[in-house]
TrEMBL record:
Residues 13-222 form the Reverse transcriptase Ty1/copia-type domain. This is Reverse transcriptase Ty1/copia-type domain-containing protein. CDD domains: RNase_HI_RT_Ty1. Signal peptide: none annotated. InterPro entries: DNA/RNA_pol_sf (IPR043502), RVT_2 (IPR013103). It holds the Pfam family RVT_2.
Length: 503
């Protein structure tokens, strides 16, 4: 607490003034937190006296993927007492914090933002933006938490997530200048090369970057060890429909919201499970609780999986979409899913229930295609900020006219595919990559299988697509593991389909 009080006084957070008449001061309290390292050891004890933009998950993946291919070093920095740097323009009075002595009848008039104020995150972000803009950076129009600086000699990128930031690029001299500039304006901690960011463990080798949440999963399992003694190889079983019932336990909702959802940053294999269970957070039942435990058992058996961003990957976008029609018996709405690769690196994926009931499979597929088209369009703009040019190619038209009620999606797709640098091709149902996420669950590969498939990249568009999924995952276990898809019965059939299919 003494350290935090000193920081509050150093930044001039408040003035001690008499309380004006007809003014009601706000209260405050101490909030304590233990900050740990990636290995679980305690880094420091934090005390905090309690809507800013933050980096999008896909932007983080894209930054790591591009840095891996271009072999840029990624440095991590942390701003101490970040919210105290924001300037407060409103007139706000606060009771002094506990153990802080002021004269009778006096209160604290806040000059700077403080944790817990609605203005605090935005005020801090505006302050940081003004500093980096003065240093020559420009905020990206496609992700406001990404700042870009371009010179003929190189490019520098800063990605901000509240008070944590990543800085990378090929202009090492300017990166050193930026670090010095930020240290003059804020109380900074230079944490060195990227290793642990937002609960994600990052390891770097000559082959690329590996992202995992092993410690985060281990913390969950430690708390619930008695409930998940038996590991599972698959996260889900489609044997019955989920129907909302009376609330069962509040802890189910908390477990889903706090534990499982955040794993979606590095675990696309549970994307569908997160999508399903999140629909019942307000009224979970014992059935949902049982399947939540099944997911946790699955994570226990596959704790070492991680995302792999290869340094030998290309920088070409590949996107896959799929949909199921009327699979939810409660409302008969279809489910869309897609995954987007930058070369061999999986950077974006999503599973989402469609807002309207589809009258045909074609309609459901079209809406899924519109969803991934919007994502790819945004990614093309974002990649331009990274200095990645997307190669143009002749687009194939959408060859069939659709009914009027979905004409907007049809028109959107036709315009984008005709006027942009995208091309549209169909995939066999058996090897459609989103089907892996949608119908099952996850495809498991041994490290040897990943390397074997990686050599098949030059065989064609479909071969590459299948290899992308394999190469994007690293399985630490050296046991040969099987995969299971409802439309396939054996791994050889899957690989045979990969080798025989052409666009």
């Amino acid at each position: 607490m003494a350290e935090e009080i000193a920081a509050l006084e150093h930044t001039g957070t408040w003035d001690i003034v008499p309380l004006p008449s007809s003014t009601a001061p706000i209260t405050c309290k101490w909030v304590y937190k233990i900050k740990t390292r990636s290995d679980g050891s305690i880094e420091r004890y934090k005390a905090r006296l309690t809507f800013a933009p933050v980096a999008h998950r896909t932007t983080v993946h894209t930054l790591v993927a591009v840095a891996s291919v271009r072999r840029w070093a990624i440095s991590q920095l942390d701003v101490k007492n970040a919210f105290l740097h924001g300037e407060l323009h409103e007139e706000v009075y606060m009771h002094p914090p506990p153990v802080y002595t002021v004269p009778d009848g006096h209160v604290c008039r806040l000059r700077r933002s403080l944790y817990g104020l609605m203005q605090a995150p935005r005020a801090w972000f505006e302050r940081f933006t003004s500093v980096v803009t003065a240093a020559g950076f420009v905020a990206s129009q496609h992700d406001p938490a990404l700042f870009v600086h371009t010179l003929p000699r190189g490019r520098t990128l800063i990605l901000l997530y509240v008070d944590d930031m990543l800085i990378t690029g090929d202009d090492l001299e300017y990166i050193a200048f930026v670090k010095a500039c930020l240290s003059e304006q804020f109380h900074m901690s230079v944490l060195g090369s990227l290793s642990y960011f937002l609960g994600i463990e990052v390891s770097s080798t000559s082959d690329g970057y590996y992202l995992s949440q092993r410690k985060y999963i281990q913390d969950i399992l430690t708390m619930l060890v008695s409930l998940i003694s038996t590991p599972r190889t698959l996260p889900w079983i489609f044997t019955f429909a989920f129907v909302p019932q009376m609330a069962f336990l509040l802890r189910i909702r908390l477990a889903i919201a706090i534990f499982i959802v955040y794993l979606g940053i590095t675990r696309p294999d549970i994307s569908y499970d997160i999508h399903i269970l999140s629909q019942f957070m307000s009224a979970p039942t014992s059935i949902h609780y049982g399947h939540l435990l099944r997911i946790l058992r699955y994570l226990r058996g596959n704790i070492d999986q991680c995302l792999f961003f290869s340094s030998s990957s290309s920088l070409q976008l590949y996107a896959y979409s799929d949909a199921t029609r009327g699979t939810d018996p409660s409302d008969f709405k279809s489910i869309s899913t897609y995954c987007v690769f930058l070369g061999s690196s999986l950077i974006s994926w999503k599973t989402k229930k469609q807002t309207d009931v589809a009258r045909s499979s074609a309609e459901a597929e079209l809406r899924a295609l519109a969803c991934v088209t919007a994502e790819v369009t945004w990614l093309q703009w974002l990649l331009a900020d990274f200095g990645v040019a997307i190669t143009s190619s002749t687009p194939d038209p959408v060859k069939h006219q659709l009914t009027k009620h979905i004409g907007i999606d049809c028109f959107f797709i036709r315009i984008v595919w005709f006027l942009s640098s995208m091309c549209l091709r169909s995939c066999s149902l058996q090897i459609c990559l989103p089907r892996v996420i949608l119908e099952l669950n996850m495809v498991f590969f041994s490290p040897n299988s990943v390397l074997l498939i990686h050599h098949e990249f030059e065989g064609g568009f479909i071969n590459m697509g299948c290899a992308l999924l394999a190469a994007s995952w690293l399985i630490s276990s050296h046991d040969v593991q099987q995969f299971s898809i409802s439309s396939l019965n054996a791994a050889p059939a899957f690989f045979a389909a990969c080798n025989n299919c052409t666009p």
